[in-house]
Design brief:
The chain is α+β, with helices and mostly antiparallel strands. Helices cover 20% and strands 61% of the residues. It has 3 helices and 6 strands. It has helices at 2-7, 56-66, 114-121, and strands spanning 9-22, 26-39, 42-52, 71-82, 89-103, 106-113. It has a 5-stranded mixed beta barrel with strand order 1-2-3-5-4. Strand 4 (71-82) and strand 5 form a beta hairpin. It is globular, with a radius of gyration of 15 Å.
Length: 122
Amino acid sequence: MESTNLINKVIIEGDIVRGSFGSNDNPTYFCTIKQERNAIRFKWINYFSIYALPPLANHLAKIVADDPHAHIIIEGELRTHISKKSQDPKTSILVNKIVNVSTNNQTVNEKNSIESIAAKSK
C-alpha cells in the first residue's frame, strides 16, 4: 500500500500569505501559500491551502508568528474533500515535513518531521 501514498506526495515552495488555527479550539493550523512562476514575459500565481496537525501545527504557527510572509518549502500529502456548503471538491495539502524556511534573508534547514517534533515535545 506504500504506492498509494507516493501518488499523493507533494513538495511545494512558496511564500506564506496568511495562517490561523481552526475554529472552536481546533488544534489544526491552516495556511495559504502563494507560489509565483515566471517564463519569458508570462507570470503565473497560484495559491495552495495547507494544514498541519499537532505537534507540527505549533511549529508552523511559530514560523508564521515570527515572519508572516516567510518563504517555505514543505512536504505533504494531497487531500481532497467535499465542501459542506457548496458540495464542490476542495483540495488541500496535509503538511508532513517542513523542509526549509527562509525569513529575512536567513535560511533555516528544517530536519523536523512529525516524529522528531513529537519527540522534542515529550
